[in-house]
Write a structure and sequence with these properties.
about 0% strand
């Protein structure tokens, strides 16, 4: 039994790695094409070796190095990479947790936006300590996540439809309140963004890694990355080692069977979406309370990318809470590296194309799993003979 479980984990990891490798190969091919187009457009003579060299040294190598590309003992890119990884882990957990319970939380982006609002109100207006601001972000996100859960549980409205609608309601509601007609207490007219948390309430900032003795890793990298990892571990324990987790997963497998077994399926659906919303809200709090960015209510007419990137993180991790840690770090690493590519040849969005291809390949992960499992079975049978 134990060997079968280990084998299943190994097959899942190998399948994910196969998706990553194929995605990187396709990404490099795209970079070669863009490099060739750039060389051709310049009119100067060139060889195919020049094209390959440009694609690798000015693009692919920098993507692979991610935040480590640059100068200094600890390049600034590492700080940015860690700052992005924390909310990515949380939104990935938000989607993965719902997946585990049979729900598709496509509303993580809206829950993230509302969670950011809760954190900013507590930081910029109430000037509360960072941990209370994070709790507020969780509560706001949880309330926004509970609404699709209630519609699903009591009216059987598909959570995808409700969540999509509430994504936009949440985003524009947050923008309207933060903007305040141009004179909102949280809106800085000079920058057209919300005030920086450091400028208004330094006590609301999440401690950075320098406070733990990592003198070269400072803001926006904070202890939030460790909090996110601890939450991921806690969720794994809840889902796999507790009665509550078993009931949630049972509802995900079959609501009718769970109801027949005496499980309150309506309560568990609402709880699942509420917890998912809280996780997305915490992710937003981690990002804005690290002073990595300020919310821009006048131009934030597109849903937060972190919300939808969470879907990518969950898919790449096969919805495993611990796997979301690695997949979030990987996607953050690739995205950060994309910003260092030679902009004269490669647009930074190419990094999103590479991660997008990898996520698309995750749709074929079951096929890869079956193929790898068969190969392992053949090798075992061959070894027996």
């Amino acid at each position: 039994m134990k060997n079968n479980k280990l084998r299943s984990v190994a097959v899942t990891i190998l399948s994910a790695l196969l998706c990553v490798v194929i995605g990187l190969v396709i990404g490099f091919a795209v970079l070669v094409g863009l490099s060739y187009a750039s060389r051709s457009g310049s009119g100067a003579p060139f060889t195919f070796a020049d094209v390959i060299n440009d694609a690798y040294t000015k693009g692919f190598q920098r993507v692979l190095m991610g935040g480590w590309y640059g100068s200094g003992r600890v390049p600034r890119g590492i700080r940015s990479e860690l700052a992005q990884a924390a909310p990515l882990i949380m939104t990935g957990l938000s989607v993965a947790f719902a997946f585990k319970t049979g729900l598709f939380n496509i509303g993580a982006a809206g829950q993230y936006a509302v969670g950011a609002f809760g954190a900013l109100v507590c930081a910029l207006v109430l000037k509360l300590p960072w941990y209370l601001c994070l709790i507020a972000a969780a509560v706001f996100g949880a309330l926004w996540g509970a609404i699709p859960g209630i519609f699903k549980a009591y009216f059987n409205v598909n959570e995808v439809i409700t969540a999509i609608m509430f994504n936009w309601i949440g985003l524009y509601g947050v923008n309207t309140i933060l903007y305040g007609g141009g004179h909102g207490v949280m809106f800085n007219e000079k920058t057209s963004k919300t005030w920086a948390v450091a400028a208004k309430s330094s006590g609301s900032l999440i401690p950075d890694l320098k406070d733990l003795g990592a003198n070269y890793i400072v803001r926006p990298a904070t202890v939030g990355i460790f909090i996110a990892i601890l939450i991921a571990v806690a969720l794994w324990v809840i889902l796999n080692k507790t009665t509550f987790g078993y009931e949630l997963k049972a509802c995900g497998f079959s609501k009718s069977a769970a109801k027949y077994a005496g499980i309150n399926e309506k309560k568990n659906i609402i709880l699942s979406m509420t917890i998912s919303g809280a996780l997305a809200g915490i992710g937003a709090g981690m990002y804005y309370l690290s002073d990595a960015a300020q919310w821009e209510p006048m131009v934030s007419t597109v849903l937060p990318a972190f919300g939808f990137d969470g879907i990518s993180v969950a898919l790449l991790a096969s919805s495993h809470p611990l796997g979301t840690i690695l997949s979030a770090l990987f996607i953050s690493h690739i995205s950060t590296g994309g910003g260092f590519m030679d902009a004269m040849i490669f647009p930074p969005e190419i990094a999103d194309v590479i991660s997008g291809v990898i996520i698309y390949l995750c749709a074929f992960m079951m096929l890869f799993k079956n193929k790898i499992a068969r190969l392992l079975s053949r090798k075992e049978k061959g070894g027996l003979h």
